[in-house]
Design a protein that fits this description.
Layout lengths: L1 E4 L5 E4 L7 E2 L12 E9 L5 E10 L4 E4 L6 H9 L1 E6 L3 H8 L14 E3 L6 E3 L4 E12 L5 E12 L9 H20 L3 H24 L4 H22 L2
Antiparallel strand pairs: 1-2, 3-11, 4-5, 4-7, 5-6, 6-11, 7-10, 8-9, 10-11
Helix pairs in contact: 2-3, 3-4, 3-5, 4-5
């Protein structure tokens, strides 16, 4: 793996060697039918700017998957407009963090250094992903009052030939905490039931923080957890000021 530093200062490990990758399928990547897989979905916005966001997807078959973004999200708008996307598979917490909290980046956007153009669809893909799934939208529907559902046809699946890496509890606890944190901010601004859910999620984030601090103190994982707690404290103060 070759690290490169993005313009906003973080190290990203470039494990996706597209010149030496291999064709594969969804099942080989560990996806199971009906089970949510945590990924990062990348799209182009109306101005042609590459963007990405963490998102759970559900595989329907080896050729089809479902993406369920919130209708208030940029990913939803981009999927509606462009009818395509790239589903990026990674276990890199840094990528989840950068794409989840874009407001901390320059101009509140992701650096173009993170992306290259997809092969089969008009969408960007993350250079540092471990695998990519290029998809076209086949059908659009409603999953819930707040979320849409896009049924997508798989056009291309590629994976890197990166070496296996040891399982690290801190790595996956950090990703879990990031995913929880993306839901805390909107819930804090919601009704009483949603606010209660936000505090339950905060308890889960604290559990993840304990795991990280015990298994990987003074690491980039612990730095991300500290930054997450700073963000959450700010969100709590903002929500209290609105009451």
């Amino acid at each position: 793996m070759c690290p490169f530093r993005c313009s906003f200062g973080f190290w990203i490990f470039d494990t996706m060697l597209f010149g030496d990758d291999c064709m594969t399928n969804l099942y080989d990547l560990g996806f199971l039918e009906g089970i949510i897989g945590e990924t990062i979905v990348s799209t182009y916005d109306v101005d042609g700017q590459a963007t990405a966001a963490p998102m759970g997807i559900v595989v329907e078959s080896n050729e089809r998957l479902r993406i369920r973004p919130y209708t208030s999200s940029l990913t939803y708008k981009n999927l509606q407009a462009n009818r395509c996307a790239v589903v990026n598979v990674t276990s890199n917490p840094e990528l989840f963090y950068l794409t989840a909290f874009k407001e901390s980046n320059t101009n509140r956007k992701l650096s173009l250094e993170l992306f290259e153009k997809a092969e089969m669809v008009d969408a960007p893909r993350l250079l540092a992903a471990d695998a990519i799934i290029e998809v076209l939208v086949a059908e659009t529907g409603s999953f819930s009052p707040e979320r849409a559902e896009f049924l997508c046809n798989v056009q291309l699946v590629k994976a890197s030939k990166a070496l296996p890496t040891v399982y690290c509890r801190a790595q996956f606890a950090t990703i879990e905490a990031i995913i929880h944190a993306t839901r805390i901010k909107p819930f804090l601004r919601g009704n009483k039931q949603e606010q209660k859910h936000a505090f339950r999620l905060l308890e889960l984030v604290n559990v993840c923080k304990d795991v990280v601090n015990r298994t990987a103190p003074n690491s980039r994982y612990s730095e991300i957890m500290a930054e997450l707690h700073q963000r959450i404290s700010l969100w709590k103060n903002e929500s209290e000021s609105l009451r």
